[in-house]
Design goal:
This protein has 169 residues and is of the alpha+beta class. It is built from 5 helices and 7 strands. It has one domain. The strands form 3 sheets. The protein has a 3-stranded antiparallel β-sheet, with helices on both faces. A two-stranded antiparallel sheet has the order 4-5. A hairpin with a 6-residue loop joins strand 1 and strand 2.
Length: 169
């Protein structure tokens, strides 16, 4: 992913007002070398000022699409169970995957309509795909014969399908 600046990120959000986008806290390390841009396919973070709000910025053919998401409240996850991220298909313990809910863009979202997806709770799908981050507990990971590029393409297709559902309202 190409490095982004604050102005590009704020302008990308499609499911919140400009005022709301202006109040979002940017990811830590945005102005320095704290974000591993070369290893990212999309930018995802939790708003440090609002821990139940998560943000995604996804590059696409028509530019960036930014989404405001609601994270679930922390709860007691059953570590013995496993779950799979629907974006990168990484297996985690149940606490490693969370249901993120996004208001739909436009009038539908203002009327309270939402759509959700199960994703890596730390939004680090790109790092899991590249082996730069491992799930917290050792689960038996499925062996895949796909190349890294093919797995990234699949993950981005899954993520774009989600963003398309939000944008379509």
């Amino acid at each position: 992913m190409e490095p982004l600046d604050e102005k590009e990120i704020r302008a990308s959000f499609v499911n919140c007002s400009k005022g709301e986008a202006g109040r979002i806290k940017m990811p830590p390390g945005l102005t320095g070398d704290g974000i591993p841009w070369r290893d990212l396919d999309f930018l995802g973070w939790t708003d440090p000022a609002a821990p139940l709000r998560a943000l995604l910025v996804v590059p696409g053919e028509e530019g960036l699409t930014g989404l405001v998401l609601r994270r679930p409240e922390p709860g007691k996850a059953n570590a013995a169970r496993s779950s799979m991220c629907r974006i990168c298909l990484t297996d985690h313990t149940s606490s490693g995957v969370a249901l993120f809910v996004a208001p739909l863009a436009g009038a539908a979202g203002r009327n309270g309509n939402t759509v959700g997806e199960y994703m890596c709770s730390d939004l680090a799908c790109s790092l899991y795909l590249r082996g730069k981050r491992k799930p917290k507990m050792r689960l038996v990971q499925r062996e895949e014969t796909l190349t890294l590029d093919e797995r990234v393409d699949r993950a981005m297709a899954n993520l774009r399908a989600f963003t398309d559902r939000v944008v379509a309202g």
